[in-house]
Amino acid sequence: MSDAVPSPGRRKLLARISIGLGCVGAALIGVPVVGFLLAPLFEAVAKTWRSVGPVEQFKNGATVQVKFADASSVAWAGVTAQTAAWLRRELSGEFVAFAVNCTHLGCPVRWLENADLFMCPCHGGVYYNDGSVAAGPPPKPLTRYPVRVRDGQVEILTGPTPIT
Ligand code: FES
Fold it and tell me: Which of 101, 114, 115, 162 is the most buried (most CB within 10 A)?
């Protein structure tokens, strides 16, 4: 009969083997899960042309907000997959689109028709109607999206939400 108690050295060795096997098991399960969750953050997002409406819907000289699906959204994004831009049809008929996100910390800017300015409510950032900075903390102009007209539809080339 062997009632021998393992020696302290053997007990330590068994404990280390148990901990080591536990770490290996956790890594085998955890690495793929973490990789799956973080992969979307490191994938290059292709820019996508999004239709925002027929040309005749936009009046010359007017700036309106248009909504579209964010090119960088993930499958589980829900309503956050929707984003927006400010679209202006110049008096000449040309289109210009600005990101709604302030270049300071990303708050959505508002278009003030009467003042002819974009205003950011978060820290008082102000932009002229061409998107350049008029006042406040924004470090650079509003991001512009390329715009084109195809088959009577105004399209915006969307990419990841331009938050700096
Ligand atoms: S986020 Fe717009 S001014 Fe700070």
Answer: 101
Please indicate whether residue 136, judged by its CB atom, sits closer than 6 Å to ligand 1: yes
Whether residue 117 sits in one domain with residue 38: no
* Any domain includes 164: no
Q: Does residue 64 sit in the same domain as residue 142?
A: yes
Domain holding 62, by residue range, is 48-158
Residues 6+ apart with CB under 8 A from 104: 120, 122, 123, 125, 136, 137, 138, 139, 164
pLDDT tens-place values along the chain, 164 residues long:
556 666 888 889 999 999 999 999 999 999 989 888 887 677 776 788 999 999 999 999 999 999 988 776 666 767 777 889 999 999 999 999 999 999 999 999 999 999 999 999 999 999 999 999 999 999 999 999 999 999 999 999 987 665 54
Closest atom of ligand 1 to CA, residue 109: 2
C-alpha–C-alpha distance, residues 64 and 154, integer Å:
13
If one residue of 105, 110, 127, 163 were mutated to test the ligand 1 pocket, choosing by the most ligand atoms within 8 A of its CB, it would be 105
* φ, ψ dihedrals at 56, nearest 5°: -70, -10
Query: For residue 105, how far is its CA from the centre of ligand 1 (angstroms)?
Result: 5
Q: Is 104 in the pocket of ligand 1 (CB under 6 A)?
A: yes
pTM score, two decimals? 0.72
